[in-house]
Write a structure and sequence with these properties.
It is a single chain. The protein is α/β, with parallel strands linked by helices. The protein contains 16 helices and 19 strands. The strands form 5 sheets. Strands 1, 2, 3, 4, 5, 6, 7, 8 and 12 form a 9-stranded mixed sheet that branches. A 3-stranded antiparallel sheet has the order 14-17-18. Strands 15-19-16 form a 3-stranded mixed sheet, with no helix packed on it. The longest helix has 39 residues.
């Protein structure tokens, strides 16, 4: 078998090429960059320029299947020129292929498998889309995908079987959307977008490449959704990225208006909700390697150099996974101890006793022994969980301490701003700033931040308060007491992360 791949040097194309090599499938590929043309055994490059309808006809030699991945990236601002480029790159590439096959009269090509996108499905929080849905989203992306697929259908006029693979959000650290989503999380400014309730149907890059090969090898035709069986909301996806990268999420959701200001019409990609079914491809016999987002992200970010996700997490200091490993050790140690004890005690003395027991009595004795072993094992495990629970809870309470500490000056600035704005007559501005301030404080409060209450007249406590100066007490009652609070103090859980700065009377 020999395939011709367009877009072979892209993210998805490189994955498919690697899988083809593993499956002993010869590859011809088309590129617009002559510097990327190589000639190797079972891997040969050819030049084409769809913009000018140019193509090296030798690319079709011996080819039975075309995999079409050509198309300009949609992840750039949707200006008028970029919109035109996005659409033309998809239409012209297919028309160049079709025109060349018609002109030359290539008879070896039996199938074309073309990339498409789930963006064709209407934006919805409640619908569950299967391939049979004919309704098209009224966005620019819906229009592009609809035209794109119609161009693929034109190959049927040449008796070439067609298959269209509607691709979801591709999960890979090598390119695509995931690195851009992970970047703010890595720098402690990650947050869900908009409401965060929009559905995101995703797929691991490895599974996507396997779907293309599956369609080819099974000789499938028609439309297939290339998405994992378990779509997630934007909130869930953001939380899973943060979990795997071991970063806290402390900021509120990013408002739609802010995203629209930055990205314009392209912001639709971030807010669109498509909950898409994978049942059809699964019913054809395809088995997903990564059906769940948690395992997919662990594989992408943690399974390096042959290590498992647990190995990588353990080495990086993940307490949760250390706990799991310690739990296994506890179980193994107890089992080993029991087996050793059983072995040592099952000497001649016990053997003599068993000689006089019936088979039923022997079985009852063994059952009692197993019950005892189980009870001791259960008790030891419960003790272990109690010993470690406090440590784990403390860890969760203080997660992201550094980030929260860095945000404390913002709280101070809000307080100063409100104090000054209150002096003006602009009450609407005051209410607006107050609303933002309260929302910000409430968000941090939900993450465990608490203000340390200090007021004039409180007894000075060196363990809690930070005395910056002493002044003559205004009254005898304030001698040795807090006279004024210069800077508020805060706790994260039960831990003081900033001591309140006070003035003490003497």
């Amino acid at each position: 078998m020999k395939v011709l791949i367009t877009g072979a040097t892209g993210l998805v194309g490189r994955e498919i090429v690697n899988l083809c090599k593993q499956n002993k499938i010869s590859v011809n590929y088309l590129t617009t960059n002559k510097d990327k043309i190589v000639s190797q055994k079972d891997f040969n490059g050819f030049y084409w320029n769809p913009e000018n309808n140019e193509i090296d006809a030798n690319c079709f030699n011996g080819v039975t299947t075309i995999i079409n991945l050509a198309g300009s990236s949609i992840s750039k601002r949707w200006t008028r020129n970029n919109k035109k480029k996005i659409l033309n790159s998809r239409v012209k590439s297919l028309r160049t292929l079709l025109g060349a096959i018609s002109k030359i009269g290539v008879h070896s090509i039996k199938t074309i498998v073309s990339a498409s996108a789930i963006g064709i499905y209407p934006n919805s929080l409640s619908q569950y889309y299967k391939e049979e849905v004919e309704e098209v989203d009224d966005s620019f992306l819906g229009e592009v995908v609809s035209i794109w697929e119609k161009e693929v259908d034109a190959f049927e006029k040449l008796n070439i079987q067609t298959a269209k693979i509607r691709i979801g959000l591709v999960m890979s650290d090598k390119g695509g959307a995931l690195p851009e989503m992970a970047k703010p999380v890595k720098y402690y400014v990650g947050a869900a977008i908009g409401s965060g309730n929009q559905w995101q149907s995703w797929i691991h890059l490895y599974d996507l490449g396997r779907i293309f090969l599956h369609v080819i090898l099974k000789d499938l035709s028609g439309i297939y959704n290339a998405v994992a069986p378990n779509p997630v909301t934007n909130v869930k996806l953001t939380k899973e990225i943060a979990r795997v990268l071991q970063r806290p999420l402390i900021l509120p959701h990013i408002p739609k208006t802010l995203i629209r200001l930055g990205l314009g019409e392209m912001s639709y990609l971030l807010f669109a909700s498509q909950r898409v079914s994978s049942k059809k491809i699964e019913d054809s016999g395809f088995d997903f390697a990564y059906p769940n987002i948690c395992r997919a992200l662990e594989n992408i970010y943690l399974d390096k150099g042959g290590y498992t996700a647990r190995d990588a997490l353990y080495k990086n200091g993940s307490n949760e996974n250390k706990t799991e490993e310690m739990e296994d050790d506890v179980l193994n140690n107890i089992e080993n101890q029991d087996s050793e004890q059983d072995g040592s005690s099952a000497g001649s003395e016990n053997f003599d006793k068993k000689e006089g027991l019936s088979q039923e009595e022997q079985l009852q004795e063994e059952l009692n022994k197993e019950k005892d072993k189980f009870l001791r094992l259960f008790a030891e495990f419960e003790n272990y969980k109690r010993r470690t629970s406090k440590e784990r809870m403390d860890l969760f309470k203080t997660a992201g301490q550094e980030v929260i500490v860095s945000l404390l000056p913002v709280i101070d600035d809000f307080d100063r701003a409100l104090k000054e704005i209150s002096k003006s007559e602009d009450q609407e501005m005051f209410k607006g700033v107050e609303l933002i301030s309260n929302k910000f404080k409430e968000t941090l409060k939900n993450k465990g931040l608490q203000e340390i209450e200090v007021k004039q007249g409180d007894s000075f406590d060196a363990e809690i308060h930070d005395a910056i100066t002493q002044i003559p007490a205004p009254s005898k009652k304030l001698k040795g007491k807090v006279v004024d609070v210069v800077e508020k103090g805060f706790k994260l859980g039960d831990k003081i992360i900033r001591h309140p700065k006070v003035v003490v009377g003497n």
